[in-house]
Specification:
This protein is α+β, with helices and mostly antiparallel strands. Helices cover 32% and strands 27% of the residues. A 9-stranded mixed beta sheet has the order 1-2-9-8-5-6-7-3-4, covered by helices on one side. About 7% of the residues have low confidence.
Length: 171
């Protein structure tokens, strides 16, 4: 029951965040956050461009955020050594199961230095079955995106622009 409530609150925060850009379409100020949602999700009044970011999937195939153009992305920067990151992964997996598809994807990007094997092992142990495995082999995603700590979750629109972010756990 408690897990369902947390998942529902997080899903509602995401739905709210996805609808906010419509309300702020005429805003003129750049980079001015407005806190919305029950979990302190910061939404930018105008969408922010995101620097080019390269990473790999579970099989080592090179990818970039640009490969996700055309769908909204919930980009979660995390690591297996981070306890809050580990705790929220089942919720992110459930979110992908419920909302993932042609228009939305949860991209859980690990910054683990040990490589994809540690992510694969963690997914297997925890039972994560809906999230694809992604790794940043350079561990530069955090600095590239201005992440100050993990977990950090960014909401990107279908054009790859950042609509907002949540620093800290989603649960």
């Amino acid at each position: 029951m408690r897990e369902h409530c947390r998942r529902t609150k997080f899903t509602m925060a995401i739905i709210l965040a996805l609808s906010v850009p419509i309300a702020f379409a005429s805003a003129t100020a750049a980079d001015v956050p407005q806190s919305v949602g029950p979990q302190g999700f910061l939404v930018w009044e105008t969408p922010r461009s995101v620097p080019e970011l390269h990473f790999e999937d579970g099989s080592g195939t090179p990818l970039a955020l640009a490969d996700f153009q055309g769908k909204a992305v919930l980009l979660n920067i995390w690591a297996t050594w981070c306890a809050p990151c580990r705790d929220e992964m089942p919720t992110l997996d459930s979110l992908q199961a419920e909302l993932g598809g042609d228009r939305f994807e949860v991209v859980a990007l690990s910054i683990d230095h040990e490589g994809i094997a540690i992510v694969q092992d963690f997914y297997r142990k925890v039972g994560v079955g809906h999230l694809r495995q992604y790794i940043d082999p350079t561990a530069m995603a955090g600095s590239t995106l201005g992440v100050t700590g993990v977990p950090t979750t960014l909401l990107l629109d279908s054009q790859g622009r950042e609509l907002g972010r949540l620093v800290g756990a989603t649960d």
